[in-house]
Structures are given as structure tokens and as C-alpha cells.
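Bumping with the actual sequence this time:
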Amino acid sequence: MIDLPVVPANQPQRKPDWLRVRLPVGKEYAHVRGLVDEHKLHTICESGNCPNMGECWGAGTATFMILGNICTRSCSFCAVATGRPLAVDTDEPNRVANSVKLMQVKHCVITSVDRDDIKDGGSIIWAETINSIRRESPDTTLETLLPDFRGIWDNLDRVLETRPEVVSHNLETVRRLTREVRIQAKYDRSLEALKRTSATGLRTKSGIMLGLGEKEADVLEAMDDLLEAGVHILTLGQYLQPTRNHHPVIDWIHPDQFAIYKEWGLKKGFRYVESGPLVRSSYHAEKHLFEM
């Protein structure tokens, strides 16, 4: 008898060759890297080990996460810690604005954890952060990757009133998998948030992770739902499992399939589609500032 190797059931799947990441290079990246280190600035690009950090920093784009690093939700795909968040830091808007100014960010993306523990859902800090950045860096354009604020639309409106150049809220997955992947979220609530955003005349954006077990028909349905909600920009990327305790990768989506999805999305009517294995919400965000 020949002993065959036993592969543990919880051993991570080997990533395909097309998921190789380019090392960060370039003068712009080196400049931003130096500022981040010198001033101990915080970006989600770095803490999230984003594969596109070098490319985005080189283009003058950076993403900041506000309202702490503990989320009140426990989505099965997300590596952010879940639990009881700390008290809101009222000085955070000033510190983020100072970071944007020091880094000379041309296009700033802001995201946050979900703060279901507070009445305003964090929307006051959201609005103050945007206004602080505008005061300190008036030439910097802004994209906000917003939560759904539990469907309390006054909180969403508070942020939309600041008129960021792009407003994003990620659908994250298809309708059929939402309960499994986003246990405390609702597919139709996310669509309503996007519909309300688009109705204000703002550029509206959403993203979906692939490889969670969705089928082509699921993705096409999600595209149609997003277009009906008025979404202009769509991002599609490969889901990567953060730890063994998170949702497993069901499929590795080939770059050719991402290219097909991009073609279908553009034909359906999206103004801009970013589709590829390494695409993340803020990938090429500076290019999404098309004329409405």
C-alpha cells in the first residue's frame, strides 16, 4: 500500500496564479509611504492589506476607515472585529482631514464600520469628517462608502447633504446568498439606500464579491436590481477568505469570466464597471469621477 497525503478539511485552498499581487513601486507611493510611517497615519489600504495599495497610492488615492475598528455586525466575509465599539471620537474628523492634507491625497475614499449601537448610526461623524476634509483640502475629491444605517433614512440623508462626488454602498453578494453572507443586512434595504442616493443626483456606486457560491444568473439579477436602483458604477472582485473562521471560497473566478461580466454590465447600462480578481471597492476610484 502507498500512503497518500491527507489534506486537512480546514486547510486553505491554494490561490490560482492570476491572484498574484504586484509589489508597490514608484515615487508617489514612496512619498505617501514615508508620510504614513512618519506621522503614524491610519488607512484601511494598509491595515486591510489591500492588493492595490501601491497602485492607488501612486495615483493619489487613499481610503480611511472612521468610527473605530470594531463593528456591530458579524458578516461572514469580513475580517473587521465584531463586538461593542468604543465611544465615538469627536476629534476624528479633524485627524482624518489632517491626514488627507499631509498625504496630499487627490481623491479620498472614506468608509466605516457599522455603528448600530448609536442613534445616529455614526452619520454625524460622517458629515463632520467630509466637511473637515473640504475645509483643509478643498481640491480633494471624495467618495463615501456608506453603511445602510439600518434603514433610518434621516441618517443617510445627513451624509448625502454634504454632496460627496461619489456615494457607494456595497451590495456585497447576490440576493440568494445575502442571509448567509450578510446576516444582519438586507438585500432590499441596500437597494433602497442606493435608490435614495441616486435620487439626489449623486454618482452612485456598488460592489459585489464573487466566489461565494453565486451562479451567473444570480450575478445578472443583481446587476438588473442595481441598475433599477439607479447605480452608475459597479465593481466586481474575487472574494478572499480572511481566516478559517470566515466564509470559505467556493469558486475561484477566472479573469476571462470577470471580463465577460464587465462586458455584460456595460451593455446593460452601467456607466463604469471595474471587474477583475483583485478589484476592490476603491480600485481606480479616481477614474469614477465621470461627468454626469
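The C-alpha cells above came from a reply further down the thread. The mean pLDDT is 85.
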